[in-house]
């Protein structure tokens, strides 16, 4: 969603899906919006915890972390942690510190995005080291991010990771308001698959659409950071190996969009909102193509 | 004023009524559709 819609449009999309009863209880305020989005998430997944806070929580309790990991994987998390308890605590503290640092950088770069994150993202938890490869966002747990900043991941890479996750989470909430596809079950048929924008193989259409949105969010972030760097004495270091460089990413997003457009079965599954997302992505990627040379990352 | 406070303040009375009544029903229906799909998919 980030880079496809402006912040006012994203705010409206969030307002339109919030739970009216909760909003009535907390009032028409950012906190009311946050609480009412969590109510919606809980209607989707009753096991999700609700955080009565003003902003995104970084989960520190191991029991909550295990429970959220279970929701992501679809199976309960095994009890036996491979690392001993003190090591697990140390890892959690280290990861939380790195996430906080990345969120502070994001806040300084884009306070509006932080505001939106505080409303839409209920919590961020850190998975176990072996879960590093798993997705940071799951449609099974709306508003929850799993972040596992590996030791070799730079501050900027953690920012990119979080922004990609926020964008995908906003897309999940957007679908509560307007479905992106006519038939969910037809999405699982291989003839409706298309090529992903990040991992270069075929995926179900919903996964491909999320990967396109994630790629656009990264290009958008980099373009904003590049613009901000012009006025900074100490520019933000934007080295990243987490996502492809901007020229490659632009090319991959174009290929993914083309892969959908050339598949009549996939195209027929897109709802009006789905078509709008695709057409906005196509327009934006061409705009980013013009500046990707300057981005050089 | 924050971008969210602005967005909330810009809601007109008919929009709020729409949000509270009609729209909520379609959101609930969409949540049920998505829930049914993703629970089958991860099974």
Question: How would you describe this protein?
Answer:
The complex is a heterodimer of chains A (297) and B (43). Chain A has 297 residues and is mostly helical. In chain A, 59% of the residues lie in helices and 4% in strands. Chain A has 2 domains: 1-177, no CATH class; 182-297, no CATH class. Chain A has a 3-stranded parallel sheet, sandwiched between helices. A two-stranded antiparallel ribbon of chain A has the order 4-5. In chain A, helix 2 packs antiparallel against helix 3 (30-44) and helix 5 packs across helix 6 (111-120). The mean pLDDT of chain A is 87. Chain B is mainly α and 43 residues long. The A-B interface holds A 7-8, 11-12, 15-20, 23-24, 28-30, 33, 40, 43-45, 74, 112, 115-116, 119, 139-140, 175-179, 184-185, 188 and B 2-9, 11, 16, 19-21, 23-24, 26-28, 30-31, 33-38, 41-43.
């Amino acid at each position: 969603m980030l880079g496809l819609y402006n912040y006012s449009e994203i705010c409206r999309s969030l307002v339109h899906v919030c739970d009216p009863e909760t909003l009535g209880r907390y009032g028409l305020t950012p906190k009311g919006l946050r609480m009412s989005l969590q109510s919606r998430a809980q209607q989707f997944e009753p096991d999700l915890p609700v955080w009565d806070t003003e902003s995104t929580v970084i989960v520190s309790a191991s029991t909550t972390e295990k429970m959220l990991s279970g929701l992501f994987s679809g199976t309960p998390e095994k009890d036996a942690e491979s690392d001993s308890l003190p090591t697990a605590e140390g890892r959690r503290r280290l990861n939380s510190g790195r996430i906080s640092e990345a969120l502070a950088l994001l806040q300084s770069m884009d306070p509006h995005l932080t505001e939106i994150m505080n409303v839409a993202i209920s919590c961020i938890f850190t998975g176990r080291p072996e879960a590093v490869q798993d997705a940071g966002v799951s449609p099974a747990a709306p508003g929850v991010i799993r972040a596992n900043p590996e030791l070799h991941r730079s501050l900027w890479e953690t920012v990119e990771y979080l922004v990609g996750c926020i964008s995908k989470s906003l897309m999940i909430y957007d679908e509560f308001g307007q479905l992106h596809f006519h038939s969910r079950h037809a999405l699982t048929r291989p003839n409706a698959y298309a090529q992903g924008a990040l991992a270069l193989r075929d995926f179900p259409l919903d996964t491909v659409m999320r990967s396109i949105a994630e790629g656009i969010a990264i290009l958008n972030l980099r373009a904003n950071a590049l613009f901000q760097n012009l006025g900074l004495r100490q520019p933000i270091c934007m080295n990243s190996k987490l996502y492809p460089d901007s020229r490659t990413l632009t090319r991959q997003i174009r290929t993914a969009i083309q892969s959908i457009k050339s598949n009549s079965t996939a195209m027929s599954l897109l709802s009006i909102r789905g078509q709008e997302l695709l057409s906005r992505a196509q327009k934006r990627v061409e705009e980013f193509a013009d500046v990707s040379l300057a981005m050089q990352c | 004023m924050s971008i969210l406070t602005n967005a909330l303040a810009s809601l007109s009375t008919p929009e709020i009524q729409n949000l509270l009544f009609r729209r909520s029903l379609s959101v609930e229906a969409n949540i049920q559709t998505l829930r049914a799909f993703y629970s089958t998919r991860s099974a």
